[in-house]
Design goal:
Structural class: mainly beta
Shape: globular
Distance between the termini: 32 Å
CATH class of the largest domain: Alpha Beta
Low-confidence stretches: 1-8, 212-223, 225-229
Radius of gyration: 23 Å
CATH superfamily of the largest domain: FAD/NAD(P)-binding domain
Number of domains: 4
Strand order of the largest sheet: 10-9-8-14-23
Mean pLDDT: 86
CATH architecture of the largest domain: 3-Layer(bba) Sandwich
Strand content: 25-35%
Number of helices: 5
């Protein structure tokens, strides 16, 4: 296909046969990639371009516009590039284990952080043994779809096939749970009696919800969801100015989530008062060689001036896994990402980015009553977070500004035309 483009082109969608192709121009060079985000298929041509990468308008994934590589999560795969345009996805080059190499990295948990860590290790040519351990009876799957797609077949949400793990020498042990960790001996004891040695360890066992009874009854009928409550909230308790728990009239306690960290009690691995595991900017705990990521960890958030946070979201867990892997290999890399969330309510997708704690005012754009708006959260005359409905790619644009450290002032946020987007 021959295409005539002006010098001002940065990104556009073109059709090649039945394929939607993202054509980009960077420093005078054209590159062509698959136009659909490898996470959920959003058109990247409607995303936000900044420097040499594009940010997905739906969920904030970022791709390099020179290589097509995935640079910000969520997602698993890189973009198909011009040499492989007919492929549905493209992986970075990945190595395998080499015979005789005994170095072992043990990954506790079968979620986003562990899988991201395992893949990054192989992409960086780690040639030792990788063991991923999960108490689930399924291979790692896309948990973000469970709240959005009903009656989904488990096979359709697997992140990788069984053959994938075999091809890249990633051992996956299912239906196995850690009971204790000995950081002096560098061993983990499991519920079946097995004691496994490790050289480096990632703990990403996540959290769980308390099981409630006689609190919430849910009925689904004609695509409507009805909630019948048998209790009323009588008291909301707070700790350090934040809601910590709610008490119902039946004297039941709603504690929120519970960290899966009981097996760490009595170890040298530090936990906070709520049994989460604090880590540094490299995702390492207080014990050298022991890392933690995902919902279980609290970590310094760069965009919030390293304020320690706990953010239980898919994109963040994947990023944790990657950063942990790089630092396991001695490639000193600090965590520097911006939270990006989304949810679907009544068929509409709400997007959020940033960290809005302590905001003092909100600048509204659009009309909420028309189900189209952008809300910018302000603190100290700067935008610290944004939420939108039917206002793409505004939230992706805000995320890209925040992650690069570029300030969006209150004055800019109030501009009618939002020229800073």
């Amino acid at each position: 296909m021959r295409l005539h483009c002006t010098v001002s082109l940065r990104m556009m969608e073109v059709e090649v046969g039945r394929h939607s192709v993202l054509l980009t121009r960077f420093e005078g060079k054209f590159n062509a990639f698959g136009n659909l985000c490898t996470h959920y298929g959003a058109p990247l041509s409607k995303g936000f371009i900044s420097g040499q990468r594009v940010r997905c308008p739906w969920h904030g994934s970022c791709f390099n516009l020179i290589t097509g590589d995935l640079e910000e999560y969520p997602g698993m795969d890189c973009l198909p590039c011009h040499k492989t345009i007919r492929q549905q996805k493209r992986l970075k080059h990945m190595g395998r284990a080499e015979p005789g190499v005994t170095h072992t990295i043990l990954l506790l948990g079968g979620g986003a952080a562990s899988l991201s860590c395992a893949e990054t290790l192989r992409q960086e040519n780690y040639n030792g043994r990788i063991i991923m351990v999960s108490r689930d009876d399924l291979l790692p799957y896309d948990k973000t779809r469970l709240s959005k797609v009903m009656n989904v077949e488990s096979s359709s949400i697997m992140l990788r096939t069984k053959e994938f793990y075999q091809q890249y020498d990633i051992e996956v042990w299912l239906k196995k749970e850690a009971l204790s960790v000995d950081t002096d001996m560098k061993t983990v004891t499991f519920d079946d009696g097995l004691v496994q040695k490790y050289d480096q360890l990632l703990i990403s066992t996540g959290c769980r919800y308390e099981r409630y009874t006689q609190i919430l009854h849910t009925m689904l009928s004609d695509k409507n969801v009805k909630f019948y409550m048998n209790d009323n909230v009588t008291e909301v308790r707070h700790e350090n100015g934040k809601c910590s728990e709610a008490i119902l009239s039946s004297f039941s306690l709603l504690p929120g989530i519970i960290p899966n960290s009981e097996f760490l009690r009595g170890t040298k691995i530090q936990m906070d008062s709520k049994n989460f595991v604090p880590v540094d900017k490299h995702m390492q705990t207080n014990v050298p060689g022991v890392f933690c990521g995902g919902d279980l960890s609290t970590f310094p958030l760069a965009m919030a001036k390293d304020h320690r946070v706990n953010i239980g979201h898919w994109q963040m867990a994947q990023t944790h896994g990657r950063i942990a892997a790089l630092n396991m290999l001695g490639k000193q890399t600090e965590l520097n990402t911006v939270p990006f969330y989304w949810t679907v309510l009544l068929g509409k997708t709400v997007r959020y980015t940033g960290y809005g704690e302590g905001y003092t005012e909100i600048v509204m754009k659009g009309k909420p009553e028309e189900k189209k708006f952008l809300a910018l959260y302000i603190k100290n005359d700067q935008v610290i977070a944004a939420v939108s409905l039917n206002f793409d790619p505004a939230v992706s644009a805000v995320a890209e500004r925040l992650v690069t450290g570029k300030v969006i002032t209150k004055k800019e946020a109030q501009y009618v035309l939002l020229s800073w987007l």
